[in-house]
Task: structure prediction
Amino acid sequence: DGEAATPHGKEVAVSPAPDLPSAEDLRDDAEEKQPVEEGGGSVLGGPAPAPGAGAPGSAAEAPRSRTPNREAEADFYCVKWITWKGERTPVITQSENGPCPLLAIMNVLFLQWKASALPPQKEVITAEELMAHLGDCILATQPRESSEGLQLNFQQNINDTMTVLPKLSTGLDVNVRFTGVSDFEYTPECIIFDLLNVPLYHGWLVDPQTPEVVQAVGKLSYNQLVEKIITCKQASDSSLVSEGLVAEQFLESTASQLTYHGLCELTAAAREGELGVFFRNNHFSTMIKHKGHLYLLVTDQGFLQEERVVWESLHNVDGDSCFCDTDFHLSQDGAAAAAAAPLDHRLQQRQVDQDYLIALSLQQGQDPAGLSDLELARQLQQEEYQHQPQHPSPHLHPPPQ
Result:
């Protein structure tokens, strides 16, 4: 009938096509379509900020669609070699906290050993090489069945993919919905994750125990919610104005783009041992669930030489985390690594996070090596309690060591 279903069940018209492109074709096509302006990805659709938006960085202000990205200019990334499940495995790092979904996806594929192996002494890799590896992985998803419908559908998906590839090193159009950790407004960019069977998650959810917020936000996407806020604040109906203010307050109070309810749902939704991509604050991270706890792959280039700093726990909305090695054991090298890394705000915060974890370990009766100042640890723990919100909220405990 000339139609075939996409992975999202969307019917598209297809027609017989020539032979499938090679990985080289996919890469070359991506290069030809590379945007002139290189930088951060178009994240959450990049709508105009709502009137009355807060200070820069608040969720009421729309995330910037394009930010400087040195990797896009330099076009290469440093390779960190780790021992992953007994195999020497590459991890691609970056020197800035840019969006770059290409790295998050490729690190998933390398950790799954689906991407072709890199030379053992490989220390630097270019975006062009990564794109070639990605092309190989995409073509490897071709269905083995020779039915015309499946082949035509795959060809259509490949054609759609080739239009998306240029954006992978700069950013993808991602528009979250606040109803579920896998709920995103469908965009053509989703085809990459579908073809490679890589789950895409977020944790920006509305707590169902706040009915007024549930009513105000509904099933809207981020873009739609911003538009609703603008409309409601200009309405003459006081109930609409009130609803708009509730929605705006939700965005402002969840500026971290991760809620406690979202974190609980994310932990429940991810399968044990599953590798996926986690989206938060204009950034795509490689994520895994291990023994019931979530971890993000550490890809900061500042940790390039720290073999025992591989994963960072994700168990708190406020950023408290700990560094772990490849076997998810607490890494005592994390604090030293953070001190040696470039002293930007993010790495300085990680130093504080590591101190907090050690304090928490002591509070729980554990005895982490390398720390003897018990009073300092207790002081850190006390300060943490003082900074916690006063209203009751679910709290995920740090992963056991």
In short: The chain has a mean pLDDT of 75.
